[in-house]
């Protein structure tokens, strides 16, 4: 393995490991590489893959799969940031740069989907962290996940900001012949200056619009998720007309920013640009 020389820790409990990694009892190793400067990947063996969503969450799906914890896309408004604190990692820089990678997730998922009790309810990906964040270019976990879902007859949806998804469009097209597959691309804003401030690790909005075209061109249904809408920052008609005009889009939906406690952490709030002064007179 080319990364072996970059290994910085190989077991939970190692004094050199980050404090919260003691909670990752299934940690295989932690890795840094020059291709991902500033990011540490913590490779773990997942015990389970399917997460059941409580009814109280009020979400339109009951099952999710998350191959990664943390997200190098680094959106300052991300509501999932708080989940990193469960590992004693912080919801700011650590969420962006300490990425947990479930290297065996496809095998575990395939095993769970073979259970006689599995009811083949739709499974949602991209609901907590982005499955096509930069790490996916290296770890290639999604092809195995897609194959496991399609092979078991389980419908699924993927929501992403990651243009790495282009790589899997042929596989997704094949999967869609076996099960319903729906794609969603999140484009919360189109102003490039605001994008650099709020979504510093994501592909540009223009690149994501191109991804929408590629998905539709591959014959797959695609939604554009115009979310979150940030009051006084990204709620103008101009901001939202552009994705709406995109010819590749089939449907769109939106929601206002969910001000989870982690999104108000000290790292996050200063990154939000000041809202424009209200017009007077
Ligand atoms: S892409 Fe999604 S999961 Fe990743 S940081 Fe942005 S909002 Fe969070």
Provide keyphrases for this structure:
281 residues, alpha/beta, 5-stranded mixed sheet, 8 helices, single chain, pyruvate-formate lyase- activating enzyme, 7-stranded mixed sheet, binds iron/sulfur cluster, 12 strands, disordered N terminus
What is the CATH class name? Alpha Beta
Please tally the β strands and state the result. Answer: 12
Measure the end-to-end span: 66 Å
- Rg, Å, rounded: 19 Å
Largest sheet data: 7 strands, mixed
Helix percentage range: 10-25%
Taken together, the total number of domains comes to 1
Bound molecules: iron/sulfur cluster
Q: Which CATH architecture is right?
A: Alpha-Beta Horseshoe
Query: So how many helices?
Result: 8
Quaternary = single chain
In terms of structural class, how would the helical and strand content be classed? alpha/beta
Compute the average pLDDT. Answer: 84
Succession of helices and strands: EEEEEEHEHEHHEHEHHEHE
Largest sheet strand order: 4-5-8-9-10-11-12
Instruction: Look up the CATH topology.
Output: pyruvate-formate lyase- activating enzyme
**Overall outline:** globular
- Low-pLDDT segments: 1-5, 256-281
Share of residues in strands: 15-25%
């Amino acid at each position: 393995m080319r990364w072996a020389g970059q290994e910085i820790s190989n077991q939970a409990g190692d004094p050199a490991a980050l404090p919260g990694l003691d909670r990752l009892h299934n940690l295989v190793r932690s890795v840094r590489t020059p291709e991902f400067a500033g990011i540490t990947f913590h490779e773990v063996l997942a015990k389970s893959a399917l997460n059941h969503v409580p009814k109280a969450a009020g979400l339109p799906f009951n099952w999710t799969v998350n191959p990664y914890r943390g997200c190098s896309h680094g959106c300052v408004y991300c509501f999932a940031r708080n989940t990193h604190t469960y590992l004693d990692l912080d919801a700011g820089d650590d969420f962006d740069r300490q990425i947990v990678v479930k290297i065996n997730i496809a095998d575990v998922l395939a095993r769970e989907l073979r259970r006689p009790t599995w009811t083949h309810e739709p499974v949602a990906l991209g609901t907590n962290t982005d499955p096509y964040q930069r790490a996916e270019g290296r770890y290639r976990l999604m092809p195995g996940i897609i194959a496991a879902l399609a092979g078991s007859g389980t419908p699924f949806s993927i929501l992403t900001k990651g243009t790495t998804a282009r790589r899997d469009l042929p596989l997704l097209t094949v999967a869609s012949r076996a099960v319903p597959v729906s794609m969603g691309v999140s484009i919360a804003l189109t102003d490039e200056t605001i994008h650099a401030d709020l979504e510093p690790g994501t592909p540009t909005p223009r690149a994501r619009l191109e991804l929408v075209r590629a998905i539709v061109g591959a014959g797959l249904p695609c939604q554009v998720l115009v979310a979150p809408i940030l009051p006084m920052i990204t709620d103008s008609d101009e901001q939202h007309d552009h994705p709406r005009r995109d010819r590749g889009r089939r449907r769109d939906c939106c929601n206002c920013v969910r001000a989870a406690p982690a999104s108000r952490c000290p790292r996050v709030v200063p990154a939000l640009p000041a809202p424009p002064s209200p017009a007077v007179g």
